Amino acid sequence: MHLTKDEEQMLDGEQGYAIQKSMEILVALGRIYRAEKLIRVGSVQVAGVSYHNLGDAGLEFLNKLAKDGKVKVLTTLNPAGMDLEDWRKLGISEEFAEKQNLVIEAFRKMGIVISCTCTPYLIGNLPTYGEHIAWSESSAVTFANSIIGARTNREGGPSALAAAFVGKTPYYGLHLEENRVPDTHVDVKAKLKTLSDYGALGYSIGKKVQNKIPYITGIEDADLDKLKTFCASVVTYGAKPLFYMKGITPGSEKQRLPKESIIIQDTDIQEAYESINDDV
Questions:
Q1: Does the pLDDT at position 98 exceed 60?
Q2: What is the reported pLDDT for 279?
Q3: Which of 115, 162, 165 shows the shortest CA–CA distance to 140?
Q4: Residue 280: is its pLDDT beyond 60?
Q5: Which of 46, 89, 235, 243 is the most exposed place for a label (fewest CB within 10 A)?
Q6: Is the separation of the CB atoms in 126 and 148 below 8 Å?
Q7: How many CB atoms sit inside 10 A of residue 122's CB?
Q8: Which structural domain, as residue segments, surrounds residue 157?
């Protein structure tokens, strides 16, 4: 993996603890996935915000990073482990709230926008077509790749935070054009009437395509809420945070229709509802 002189200095600790630790994470990740270099990112979205997930060890690590770490690009947060204002009304304990607020304060010191949302594209963290970003939340990653046409892998919380400090991410996966080619045609024949139908559609397609990238046709009416719902569902039950939807995904008209094809009928939507209800 090629590093510039400036990146080598970061890795050697010449630009502080937070930068060094971030570079260690990014370089390790890059070597695992055989990335040839680091590339600049336009924005970051960080998951792993709840104290329930982080614990005291995670909080201690964040506090260490916050001592000299400042993010270099626009960075927003995923939801926390509680409502930051009305946590008492929700029965959250004083002990948990105190720890969660310390987590939030550490992120605030880093210069991160305390957005606490899984839809960053609705509150100002809106990338452009073709822009490289480093986002964590799976539904937001899918929306960015598939609806906006940005370029991002599904980052873990630590790798996203590292990208925020360095302003770069390893060049692999869905940042590469050759890894963004659709390989399964999904023809939607089902009649979609409600918002939840799009959630059921995402379930059905995700289950059927698994780790493939679908090229979806037959969707004629899909507003923001429907697309948001579909993105959250399809990536939950499938493996790839990217799909092409004809007429909606930027650049979809340039993609060749894959030879492998499946059809989604009304019965598939009904089966999705039945399966999800069984899960509950």
A1: yes
A2: 58
A3: 115
A4: no
A5: 89
A6: yes
A7: 14
A8: 5-177
Summarised one tens digit per residue, pLDDT across range 103-134 is 999 999 999 999 999 999 999 999 999 999 99
Looking at the fold, whether 249 and 158 belong to one and the same domain comes out as no
- The secondary structure element, H or E, covering residue 105 is helix 94-109
Instruction: Tell me, yes or no, whether 83 and 34 share the same domain.
Output: yes
Other beta carbons within 10 angstroms of residue 7's beta carbon come to 20
Shared domain for 201 and 157, answered yes or no, is no
Domain count, the chain: 2
- Gap between the Cα atoms of 189 and 265, Å rounded: 5
Which CATH number characterizes residue 167's domain?
Answer: 3.30.499
Q: Which residue has the tokens 């590339």?
A: 39
Say how far apart CA 46 and CA 108 lie, in whole Å.
Answer: 12
The answer to whether residues 201 and 164 belong to one domain is: no
Output phi, psi for 100, to 5 deg.
-65, -40
Residue 278: the pLDDT is 76
Please report the beta strands in the chain, taking only residues with DSSP state E, as ranges in sequence order.
Answer: 38-40, 43-46, 74-77, 134-135, 168-170, 184-188, 214-217, 244-245, 261-264
| Residue entry with tokens 């594209």 | 121
